[in-house]
Amino acid sequence: xxxxxxxxxxxxxxxxxxxxxxxxxxxxxTTKAAEAILDVSKTVRMKGIEAPANEKSYVAxxxxxxxxxxxxxxxxxxxxxxxxxxxxxxxxxxxxxxLEFLKExxxxxxxxxxxxxxGGSEELTKNGASLAKxxxxxxxxxGPTYIKAGQMMSVRPDVLPQAALNELAILQDSVKxxxxxxxxxxxxxxxxxxxxxxxxxxxxxxxxxxxxxQVYRAKLKSTGEFVAVKVQRPGILATVSKDLYVLxxxxxxxQGIIExxxxxxxxxxxxxxxxxxxxxxxxxxFLNEARNQDTLRxxxxxxxxxxxxxxxxxxxxxxxxxxxxxxxxxxxKLSECEPxxxxxxxxxxxxxxLVQLLQVGFFHSDPHPGNLMRMNDASKGKLCxxxxxxxxxxxxxxxxxxxxxxxHLANKDYAALVDDFIDLxxxxxDCDRAKVVPLMDKALSPYVKGGGAKNYEAExxxxxxxxxxxxxxxxxxxxxxxxxxxxxxxxxxxxxPYFALLGRAVVTLEGIALLGNPDYKLVMEAYPFxxxxxxxxxxxxxxxxxxxxxxxxxxxxGSILKGERLAVxxxxxxxxxxxxxxxxxxxxxxxxxxxxxxxxxxxxxxxRAESLRKVLVKEAIAAADVLARQALRKTVTRAFALIPRPPxxxxxxxPNPEDMEGPILLPTRGNSTPVPAFASPRRxxxxxxxxLTREEELFAISLGDLVGGLVGKNAATVLTxxxxxxxxxxxxxxxxxxxxxxxxxxxxxxxxxxxxxxxKQLQVAETTSYDGDGPNDDGGFDELLDAVNDLTPEENAxxxxxxxxxxxxxxxxxxxxxSPIAGTSGVGSSELDLxxxxxx
Length: 840
Fold this sequence. Notes:
The protein has 840 residues and is an alpha+beta fold. It has 33 helices and 15 strands. The strands form five sheets. Strands 1, 2, 3, 4 and 6 form a five-stranded antiparallel β-sheet that branches. Strands 5-10-9-7 form a four-stranded mixed β-sheet, with helices on one face. α5 packs parallel to α7 (162-173), α9 (236-261) packs antiparallel against α10 (269-282) and α15 packs across α16 (452-463). The longest helix is centred in the N-terminal third of the chain and has 34 residues, at 93-126. The model is unreliable at 1-24, 738-745, 764-776 and 826-840 (pLDDT under 50).
C-alpha cells in the first residue's frame, strides 16, 4: 500500500512538469487502477448480490403496509428479504441487468479516460458536447433510476459544463411517456370503476412525464374542480428493484476500491446506497406520498405558517398506491424563471427547507426544478412544492448537531466543529484534532464563501498559491496532494447514510440558487434562520448552543455575556448579518445597517425570542443583584460616613453606629408578615449585599459601561450606586425623563400632564443647563423610553412579566440571604451566592 501511494505522489509531480514520461507513468497508473478494480469486482461477484439493507433508515416509511406484497410478489414497503425472495425466482434477470449496465457504462468511461490521458481537461472540454450527449442517451437507455440521478445534476452549473447541463435538462421534460390508454387502464383498475364515474374530463396527453410516473389534468365530476392525476408507470416497481441490485453491486465494487487504497476511510458507501435505495423504492408508494404531502401541508402552512409557501391538497378518496389525485396548480418551474424571480423565490424555498430540516424534522428530499413552481395565483402563495414521494425524518439530536455545525462553520470555529462532526458520526471520538482543524479550514472555508464548485476551485488555487505559472502550479498541486493524502490516510472520516438524502436535497437547492445568484452562499444564507431558532427554542440543547455564542470565557474560569454578540445575534435573526473580510460571521461588530433599539426590543418581546428572553432574564437577575449589592454597599457606607462623630479626645467613645445591634423587621416570602430580629446594620448589610468578588467587580464595571452606552451617563451613575457622590446625575436623569414628555410608568394622564408641563418649562434648560451632563447626555435613555412607549399591549405584557420575574427572583434571594438572622429555613447565603455566580 505504501508503495502505491508513493508512486501516486510521484506521478502527480511529474505530470506537473510535463513530458512524455509523465503520460507513460499516468497510463501505467491507469492500468494498475483498472487491474485493482477488476480484482475487487471479481471478489464482489463471488459474494453474489444482496438487496440493500435497511437496519436504520431516515426515510418516512409506511408502517401500516409493512410485510404486504403486490400482485407480482414485490413488497409494498421496502423489505430486502422480500425482494431477495422475489428475485431468486426470476432466474438470471439480475445478472442480465448487470451486464446491460456494464455494456452502457464501460465504453463511455473508457472514452473519458482516454481523452483525459491524451489532452487533459482541454481535450475533455473540446469534446464536451459529444460526451454530454452520449451520457444523456446512456442514462435514458438505462431507465428511470439513472434518469433520477441525471435530473439531480442538471441544476449544477458550478459542477458541470454548460453542454452537459443542456443535455441533462432534457431529462426534466423529455422522458418518453407511456400510452394514455395504459394510464386509463391503471386508473380504472386502481379505483375499481370506469373513468367517467370520477372525472368529467381528462387531458388526452400527459401534461408532464417523469421517470416514475406521468401527470394528467382532469376535472372532477363531483365538484368541477381541476385536479392533477399522477399515474405510475407500468412495471416500474420491478425495474427499479432490479436497478437497486445493480447499484448495490457497483457500490460494493467502489467500497472495495476505497478499502484497498484508503483503508483509513470509514464511510460505508454501501450503506449510503441503501438509504438512497430505500427512499427510491418508497417513492413508488403513492399512498405513502399522499400522507407525506398532507403532513407537510399541515406542518408548513398551519403549524409553522411559513410565508409564501403552498402545498397542494390531496384527494384521498381517489388516491391509491399507483394513482395520486391532488389539487391542480398553475405555475412555472423555478428553473425557468428569470434570475430576479429565482433570487426572490430561493429565499422562500430556503426558509421552507430549513424549517423542514431543522425545525420539524420532516423534510422533502427531492426538491428538483420540476418539483418547485412559481405560482400564477399569488393569493395562495408564491412557491408551490410538489412530489412528496421521498421524505425523511431527522431526530432532535441530529437537528441540534446540524444547528451547532452551521453556527460554528459560519463563525469559523473549527475546533468546536470537530465536536459537531463527532456527534454527526462524520468523525470518530478519537480523531487527531491537531490534524483535522487545519484541514477543515482549507476544505470548508472556500465553501462558506459561496459560488459553488467553480468559486471553490478558484479559492483553493488562491489558498495554495497557484497563480497560473508552471512553478506555482506544480508546488501548489504537490501541497494539495499532500493534504489529500493526509485526509485519506490519517483522518478516518465517514459519511452517515442519511447524508444520501440530505445531500441530494442540498445539491439540488443550491444548484437552483446558483442559477439566480452565481455567488450564493448557502451557509451564510442559512445563518439568520439558525439565529432565529436559537433565540426562540427553549430546549436545553438550543439554550446551550445560544449561550456558547453569546458568552465569552473570563480569566477566572467563568463566563460573561457579551453585549456585542447579543446585538449581532439579534441582527442576524432579523436578516442583518455582519461579515468579516473573509466572509464569515463577525460576532464582535455590529453591521452598518443594524436594527434600531426599538426594532430590537420589539423582536425580543415576540415568541420568536422566547429562548433569548430566558437567557436575558437570568442575566438581568444576575446583573441587578450585582448592581444592587454594589449600590447598597456604597450608599450605606457613605451614609454612615456622613454621621458626625464625637471628638477623638473625649475619654468616652460611643460604639460605631454600624456595629450597634437593634430591633429590625425582616422580609419573608410571599405576603407573610415581616419577622422581628435583633442585628447590627453591618451584619444586615453583609448578609443583604455580600461583598463583590473580583470577577463580580469587573462584571459591574462592564455593566456600568453598557448602561452608559445604551441609556446615558446619568443613568449609569445612579445604577452603579454613585448617586450620593453625584446628585446632579439624579437630577439630570429625572429632568431628562420629564423633558422628554414620556415616562416609563405607563400612560397615566396625571403623570403625562406633569411631564408635558415640565417639558415646556425645560425647553431652554434642556439645551443650556447641563453642559453635556444633563438631559442631552441621556439621549439613549430617551430612545429607550420611546421604544418602551411604542410597545403594543401584548409586548408590554411580556416585558412586565419579565420584569416581575426579575423582581421576584431578587426578593427571594434577599429573603434567603437574611434567613440566618430571621430564623427562617432556607439555603445559606454562601450557597445562594454560589448559585448566583453560576448564572453568569
